[in-house]
Amino acid sequence: MMTDLTVGSLVEIPKSSLQQVVQILQDLGYRVIGPRVESEAVIYDDLESVQQIPVGVLDHQDGGKYRLQQTDQDAWFDYVCGPHSLKNFLFPPRQTVLESTRQDGVWEMKAPDVEDAPPLAVIGPRSCDLHALRVQDRVFLEGAYVDPSYQARREKLFIAAVNCRRAAATCFCHSMQTGPAVSSGFDLALTELDDRFVIEIGSQRGAEVMGGTDCSTSPPQNVQAARSVSEQLEQSMHDRSQHPPEAATGEPRGRWLDTSGIRDLLMHNLEHARWNEVAERCLACANCTMVCPTCFCSSVEEVADLSGDHVARERSWDSCFTAEHSTMSGGAVHKSTKSRYRQWLTHKLATWHDQFEMSGCVGCGRCITWCPVGIDLTEETAAIRADSTNPSPGQL
Amino acid sequence: MTQHAASSATDNPWIAHPATICSIRPETPGVATYELAFNDPDRQSRYRFLPGQFNMLYLPGFGESAISISSDPEEPSRLLHTVRVAGNVTGALARTHPGETIGVRGPFGSAWPVAEIRNSDVVIACGGIGLAPLRPVIYHLLRRRHEYGRMTLLYGARSPQDLLFADEWNHWRSEGLEMEVTVDRGDADWKGQIGVLPALFSRLDLAPERTTVLTCGPEIMMRFVISEALLRNISARRIYLSMERNMNCAMGFCGRCQLGPAFVCKDGPVFTCEQMQPYLHLEEF
Ligand SMILES: Cc1cc2nc3c(=O)[nH]c(=O)nc-3n(C[C@H](O)[C@H](O)[C@H](O)COP(=O)(O)OP(=O)(O)OC[C@H]3O[C@@H](n4cnc5c(N)ncnc54)[C@H](O)[C@@H]3O)c2cc1C
Ligand code: SF4
Ligand code: SF4
Ligand code: FES
């Protein structure tokens, strides 16, 4: 057992010892979540053991396409992000925010207890996911109001992140300064080598967990090998987005989002013809907002029992693509698909900067993959830039 | 301009606080004013609000609605909301009786800039229920009549029956508020103006450099009020408007009230025309 572990230390374990990490977390009372295959997609779900990690699975993603391939490689984490993100756990799709009880005609109102939920440990989030978490922190923790249930879950969250070795064609974290290397906000950061994980310790809790494993100090050549994983990937993502593969290869091109002056670019082109054009393809199905790890819109509904004396207010994910989202007594503000897509894209890439001093997009590509018709925000933004009615958008 | 309710670790901002309906005063067809008192005496005595702020009124089983506070901020113990029946929640509220409890969260949002506009001439231009969020301003200004210049209320409603707070007008006038009132459709007894509210601007003798405009009402009405005011060289910085958007949380969480860069619930509802100008002319924005 290593005792001199500190934040910033780099250690390594044989791959199979990842089970020790899971076990220690479980013994500490954590509910451990990790990547699993469900309905032909890699999602996050409860992990009893590392046996459930989809070893050898690769994902092929492109606009409107997601396909898994089982290979015989001993690669534990070479799929990238699937439809789930940390949002599913910290800001769950449905949750009760208030409970009211009527007794003798008088209502009592209280919030459900958030304290008793077990702390959550997540194995496998990528750099884009950690940046998305930062974005949701801004929304739920750092404004004038704090969302108590998000806060309770967030404070107890343990993160064992993974440095990607592979990117999907839909990934563009390298253009959003959100990846591919895991840079901060983790307890542990794993880099997979052929037969071992090199693990960077990011927090005291991370050190404590690793202290209980059979880890050893990582020798310089392995540290170097781990470092070059992210560097090489970033280079290849760059190459692939700048020099799209020949159509003949069947390889999808990589994505890239030019973020220079993007806030003004979009806000000065609110009446650009491209909004009409994309509206003809967009189904307003809201898939993009459901899979987006930063989208936070919700609606609150009343759920009453038969007596009407017990009423819960339930918050569930909502989307700016629905009519209800903008409905007032006089009707919806965003009636057309055009106005809804414009709300979505300008919020993600432009007004998010006004509201939260950061982009609402971390470049995970989920919205591209899960769009049934493959609408691609990098392409839509590039089209607006190519034909901007505001020729020189100011810098952000 | 933004004022936030204090939110501390112990204060879950989703919790609505039970309040008893003390009285219900019918105002005009479909509109009534509800006087509320928090059941918790401590909350009742601590509660303060600024003119223009709103509460989320909660009717369990029906939902929450954003409703402006229509009473005098300097009499916080007498908490009034003037509500027009628009649908589910407001309809359920209209079926309540004094003595029943509802839930209240708030106050939320930004306030009318009563301190910043001291010494200026003030034109309040509102339509229909839009007078409710401005009544606290009228009370505030009239209490300090000498601190402000000319005070004018331009008020419009669909018909003479829809004019709010008419029993207070004589008092307001006697305290120094000039009033111009118009209706879309008159009736046999109506001797006043007929026509849309923004047209009343032509009856005013304005000193634009000293004038502040406060407006609340349907968005289309506010757009015309703003163009009349701008046409008369009133600066966009001195025109304030209260915007309405769908609201589910009032805390910046639900995302529904977004209007460009702003969350109407926490950055507004009161904005300067300068802030809103890039967006007001856009359809479906
Ligand atoms: C800042 C602010 C202050 C307001 N002040 C007043 C006031 O003083 N007096 C008054 O009578 N009305 C006021 N309103 C309007 C009032 O909130 C709506 O009329 C009311 O929410 C309608 O709810 P409902 O369930 O009765 O109507 P419904 O039409 O049944 O509502 C249907 C759906 O639309 C939503 N919805 C409809 N209209 C609005 C709306 N305007 N804002 C948010 N959600 C809406 C409801 O949440 C619901 O989901 C104010 C609105 C805002 C934003
Ligand atoms: S907008 Fe698309 S690419 Fe950006 S964070 Fe959301 S899902 Fe990922
Ligand atoms: S407004 Fe649309 S883009 Fe913005 S957070 Fe909500 S659902 Fe996502
Ligand atoms: S009302 Fe929910 S964000 Fe403004």
Automatic annotation (TrEMBL), chain A:
Iron-sulfur recorded as keyword: yes
Superkingdom: Bacteria
The 4Fe-4S ferredoxin-type domain, residue ranges: 271-303, 352-380
Region (Disordered) residue spans: 209-255
Listed Polar residues bias regions: 214-235
Record keywords, A-Z: Iron, Iron-sulfur, Metal-binding
Keyword ATP-binding: no
Family annotation (InterPro entries): 4Fe4S_Fe-S-bd (IPR017896), 4Fe4S_Fe_S_CS (IPR017900), Helical_ferredxn (IPR009051)
Molecular functions (GO terms): iron-sulfur cluster binding; metal ion binding
PANTHER family reported for this sequence: ANAEROBIC SULFITE REDUCTASE SUBUNIT A
Identification of the protein by name: Anaerobic sulfite reductase subunit A
Native source organism of the sequence: Lignipirellula cremea
Gene name as annotated: asrA
From TrEMBL, chain B:
GO BP: pyrimidine nucleotide biosynthetic process
Lineage of origin: Bacteria, Pseudomonadati, Planctomycetota, Planctomycetia, Pirellulales
UniProt superkingdom: Bacteria
Residue ranges the record marks as coiled coil: none
PANTHER family (UniProt xref): ANAEROBIC SULFITE REDUCTASE SUBUNIT B, DIHYDROOROTATE DEHYDROGENASE B (NAD(+)), ELECTRON TRANSFER SUBUNIT
Keyword Magnesium belongs to the record: no
Note on cofactor: Binds 1 [2Fe-2S] cluster per subunit.
Native species: Lignipirellula cremea
Protein name: Anaerobic sulfite reductase subunit B
GO molecular function annotation: 2 iron, 2 sulfur cluster binding; flavin adenine dinucleotide binding; metal ion binding; oxidoreductase activity
Gene3D superfamilies: Nucleotide-binding domain of ferredoxin-NADP reductase (FNR) module, Translation factors
Keywords: 2Fe-2S, Iron, Iron-sulfur, Metal-binding
PROSITE patterns to which the protein is assigned, alphabetical: FAD_FR
